[in-house]
Amino acid sequence: MRLRRSLSTDEESELSMATTPPGRGLHLRRPPSDKVPAAKHERDRLRAIVEDHVRTLGLVPPLGLQEVLDHVRALIERHRLNVLHRDFLAVLLNNAAWRRQVAGFPFERRLLLLPKCMRDAESCAAEIDALGLVCAGCGRCPIADLQTEAEELGYAVMVAEGSPVVMSLIESGKIDAVVGVSCLGVLERVFPYMEAGAVPGIAVPLLNDGCSDTSVDLDWVWDAIHLSSADETPKLDLDALRAQVDAWCAPAGMEELLGTPRSGTEEIARAWLAKAGKRWRPLLAASAYQTLQARPDGPVPPAVRTIALAVECFHKASLIHDDIEDADALRYGEKTLHEEHGIPVALNVGDFLLGEGYRLIAACGAPPVETAAMLHAVAEGHRALATGQGAELAWMRCMRPLAPAEVLDIFKLKTAPAFEVALRVGAIAGGAGPDVANVLARFSEAVGIAYQIRDDLEDFRSGEAELLRPSLVIACAYERAGAAGKARCARLWERGAVPAELSDDIAALCAELRIEEEVRELLEAYKTEAVRSLCGLKNSALKGLLRRIVAKIFNEIDVMGCCNEHQAGDAAGGAAGAGAAA
Fold this sequence. Notes:
Layout (H helix, E strand, L loop, with lengths): L39 H18 L7 H15 L6 H19 L5 E5 L12 E3 L2 E3 L8 H11 L2 E4 L4 H9 L4 E6 L1 H13 L4 E5 L12 H9 L11 H11 L2 H8 L5 H11 L5 H12 L10 H25 L3 E2 L2 E2 L1 H5 L1 H20 L5 H30 L6 H26 L4 H29 L9 H9 L2 H13 L4 H14 L1 H18 L7 H14 L9 H9 L11
Parallel strand pairs: 1-4, 1-5, 5-6
Antiparallel strand pairs: 2-3, 7-8
Helix pairs in contact: 1-3, 2-3, 4-7, 8-11, 10-14, 11-12, 11-16, 12-14, 12-16, 15-16, 16-17, 17-21, 18-19, 18-20, 18-21, 19-20
């Protein structure tokens, strides 16, 4: 029976460190690389320095790459550390930030990922299949001992580098945390995926580069495997919550909460609410509330369900009004509401949904102070949204060249308020204070602008862009172009229509000036700002949720390659591996 120690509040680090079996302190076949301290006592000293730094500052995971590097830079300067060990220190810092969360997950919800290169390449009797190495248990390397120990505790174990199966397990919800061993190069390349998914993890760096006969501090691996806590970490199941939100917005769910419709207007409004959509906004409201609770995985209170439906009312009302103002005939692949029922009815239904949203919040049962704060947040968002739409409508009546900053201002006002309102009402209901509201405002602004930039880019690339609406692509092209190019852009607004040849002409100009690359850089800058804005959050569950939201909205989770694929790509001059590296 293996020993499992629990966290004790009177231990200095409050983290359990299982005793390493005799003879298993170091697995060393060749000297460490220059990026790793050569002496074991120095590696242990650096780990202690980093853990003290994280504990003193109270760093909250997930940490973005820039956040990690900023702290590493400070550590190097303060303690006069070797700059060559920057990547090693970065791994230790991320580990220290995640230790408490990893310790809180039961062993059965963890994955141990070991590299094949730890085996004795000359005498290894293992087989290798599609999932990785199948250890024969010969005892010539430490893989068998580590695998047996972890499996007895309840871990899932894989012996492979950067396998796509790892991300599949994470996304399927079968595991909650990862303990992994790998070289610094692979850890650097995998970090963006783990960080984007806010996956709790402990990484033990291999001491050597290369893909054979590598070495590791076995006591560090042993400690990470046995890391445990008396209090298990509850985790919000975002996919399960999304399914609940979808059910709340379905006809049966609305009837359960609101009763049967009492008028023809309400019937049309309910039918419009139930139409397709990603339900991001009600999901954000419900998930913001849940992450602020002691048990994020607990049942969602009826009041939060009511608030989430109110948020969807506001969103669907704005779509009705947008479709009328933009003269759009289709939404969700079907007729828009004004095309189906006429503009007067559609306007009235939109107004009804706005009133219904305010009514639902007022009647949700939250304490008066929180109810007033939620209504104030919605009113501010409503006003900002109308201001942004008004700026676009004013421009369309008197078209002129727009500077990129002007387009970004319109993007900010048209999209950011909806994200912010959803998050703020959920956070207010969950008991969050002004400090959280400030972070949510910055986060929502960056995400909202990035969201609009992405749509602008996708529409332009697909040839479906509406060039008579504010476009960042066109604004950047006009700003960068010479006199002749500016004249080509100006023809858009002089004619008041976009014949195919003129649209092709603008596309050619943008390609000539490499405008798509410039706009994509802006997209990445706003995504980065969204992640950086989370540094001020002290609630790990909320911070992790918002980081995962960015990853899901912008589809950041990609397929990982393995160590050998990374090296092959470099050798061929391909940047497939390097492109994902930080």
